[in-house]
Specification:
Blueprint lengths: L1 E4 L11 E4 L4 E4 L8 H4 L15 E3 L5 H4 L2 H6 L5 E5 H28 L13 H7 L3 E4 L5 E4 L2 E7 L7 E7 L2 E5 L22 E5 L12 H14 L3 E5 L5 H14 L8 E4 L1 H10 L10 H7 L4 E2 L3 H9 L4 E5 L9 H8 L6 E4 L8 H6 L4 E4 L2 E4 L3 E4 L9 H11 L5 E5 L3 H15 L3 E2 L6 E3 L2
């Protein structure tokens, strides 16, 4: 058995792990690279393996950095099944077509305004190609054993990151490997906590926050202060939020704060068709979340759902105070870019970042204090207040990950730290070594690890 690290090495995006046994070749996760141009260009590069040679793909969850390369893989010749949880399959019905649509929109805009070096600019894949990928999905229940290829047995356990997110256990050739996927937090107000892992020979674990703790702050109090300060000066609060996970978390928090009269009863808008659909979908999976029936009902009523582009454009024409939650969470695309163009130049407004911002994204640039931002080929001045609430992240920090591993009682032969930028990944390697005395490695892109 061996693993080729074809993504999520030295970066938090592009998760792809080629797992080879004596009788099978399986790709664990099939994500897009995002952020820096040098990373995004990898999406266009030839694969380091033949797509047609794969027996199956297994997905840990639906986020595009773990699933968004599927249409390209199919175009390259893959014809097997794509295994995932039922929640992931349902989310992909929303996320993948939207990803294809955004690819087409970006190409059209680049050609129209001529801010591309490629003539013509082409989409990475189309909405139609994304929809064809959905035909290969093969959903299974949590904890149910499944066989994606000859001689390989797998099962999923809950990871607590987003709806349907899972840790994957693989058994083959008398060895066992666990892929953590993205691991949620132990006390998330919406998602249930990650389940303890079962014993394994090898572990591949994420390290998004491998070098830091989430601040011990009162998130509600911070959100109240930012909201009220912005509204008092007549501004609009724009929140770029991941459509799946953070958008629902924010609706839950804002609904509670407004119910307690801690923030004014100004309009709240959820301006993302994907986030709207994901909010409705979450209600159908009570075993994945910890909201009561009353909280679920409030979640569906706290915001105006702006489904159409015309409704979205009206928000930018409205100068009255309001709250806009829109995707994408790192401001890499989607409707939030139009809102940033409109509201960033005015000091009375606030842009609130609520999740991890990868290198090379507009969100990271704002977080690091950029005074202008390039959007749709033009530079936009940043005069609005830029704020960040790190405690809203859907990723466990290094201490939460270590506590989770202690509860699991593992004794792996070797651990591979992935899905982290170089500093956090190496810091987490050292923590794991010092805490557990494990053999821990940080693979680089293209590394091949033999699992003896």
């Amino acid at each position: 058995m061996r693993i080729t690290f074809a993504g999520a090495a030295g970066t938090v995006t592009g998760s792809r792990y080629l797992l080879e046994t004596e009788s099978a070749r399986i790709l664990v996760d099939c994500g897009l690279f995002q952020g820096l141009k040098s990373l995004r260009e990898r999406n266009w590069a030839p694969l380091p393996f033949a797509a047609a040679s794969l027996d199956a793909v297994v997905l840990t969850h639906a986020h595009i950095d773990h699933s968004g390369y599927l249409p390209r893989l199919i175009n390259a010749g893959f014809r097997g099944k794509v295994w995932c949880t039922q929640g992931t399959a349902d989310l992909l019905q929303i996320l993948l077509p939207d990803s294809g649509f955004l690819q087409e929109e970006e190409a059209r805009r680049a050609n129209r305004y001529e801010y591309t070096h490629h003539h013509p600019a082409l989409p990475l894949y189309t909405r139609a190609e994304a929809e064809r990928a959905l035909e290969l999905l093969s959903p299974v229940d949590f904890h149910a054993a499944f066989t994606p290829a000859r001689g390989v047995q797998c099962s999923f356990s809950r990871a607590g990151h987003i709806l349907g997110s899972a840790c994957l256990r693989v058994e083959a050739d008398d060895r066992s490997v666990v892929f953590s996927g993205d691991v949620g937090r132990p006390h998330d107000p919406v998602m249930r906590p990650p389940e303890a892992l079962s014993a394994c020979d090898y572990l591949v674990i994420e390290s998004t926050y491998g070098d830091r703790r989430h601040p011990n702050e009162d998130i509600s109090a911070r959100l109240v202060a930012l909201t009220n300060t912005t509204l008092e000066r007549g501004g609009t609060l724009v929140i770029p939020a991941f459509a799946v996970g953070r958008a629902q978390h924010l609706l839950h928090l804002l609904g509670g704060l407004r119910e307690e009269r801690l923030i004014p009863h100004v309009p709240i808008y959820l301006d993302s068709p994907m986030a709207i659909d994901a909010t409705h979908l979450l209600m159908r999976y009570p075993k994945d979340h910890c909201l009561s029936a009353e909280e679920c009902e409030r979640l569906g009523k706290v915001a105006h759902f702006t489904g159409t582009p015309d409704e979205s454009r009206v928000l930018d024409q409205d100068a009255t105070p309001k709250i806009i939650i829109s995707a994408s969470g790192m401001a890499t695309g989607g409707r939030v870019l139009h809102h940033l163009r409109r509201f960033l130049p005015e000091a009375r407004n606030t842009v609130l970042l609520v999740g991890y911002q990868a290198s090379g994204t507009r969100g990271r640039s704002l977080q690091e204090g950029a005074d202008e931002l390039k959007i749709h080929g033009q530079y936009v001045s940043v005069r609005a207040q830029i704020a960040h609430i790190d405690g809203l992240s859907a990723h466990a920090d290094y201490a939460e990950l270590i506590d989770w591993l202690k509860q699991s009682g593992l004794a792996p032969r070797r651990v591979f730290v992935s899905h982290g930028e170089p500093g956090p990944a190496d810091a987490f390697r050292r923590r794991l070594r010092d805490t557990f005395a494990w053999d821990v490695r940080v693979p680089e892109l293209g590394d091949v690890a033999e699992l003896p």
